[in-house]
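To start, an entry.
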Amino acid sequence: MAKLRILLGDDHRLLRHGLRKILQERPDWEVVAEAGDGREAVRQALAVQPDIAILDIGMPLMNGIEATRQIVRRRPDIHVLILSMHANEAYIIQALKAGAKGYLLKDSADTELIRGVEAVASGKSFFSPAVAKVMLDDYVRHMADKGVADRFDTLSEREREVFHLVAEGRSNKEIAELLSISPTTIVTHRAHVLQKLDVHNTAELVLYAVRRGVIS
């Protein structure tokens, strides 16, 4: 079986060394390249074509969000996991819109890195529990301030199933197989979910799911 190939992008060499040590505890994983700035991360990603790119959000020359955007636009098959010191909603939104599959806090990387890479490698989303809690707390406060009902309650049982699977990063084909219905029907359900929740793309849907605590 081929090894999972990983790119590490962070401007702190000692942190990269520590992350590499954690990752290489898995014999089926391999760190194939490292980068100390965003431009180099993009160059390395396009050159070595890893399965996973783990990128610091605050790299010099080009930040991790812009590097993510450029990598995903050119190689959508590379899954990006963002590293950050901040559980900041604005950063999380930007990362998701850029195409990142997950958001991991540096101070918990020693315990969550393996789980995060496993999730992202399988096409799912991953957020540090602390990030998910911040998003959920902000969402509850926002809904209370607006004094409105949660749009999630308008979804049918089937639409909720589709919503959850889309938020996990499943493709229409995968969802159709899991629910034993046609891909065309999934497309219809997906459109209804977006409309009812008033979100416009998958990134916003994932953000909504994290805020509501549906996924973590």
About this structure: The chain has a mean pLDDT of 86. The first helix runs from residue 13 to 23.
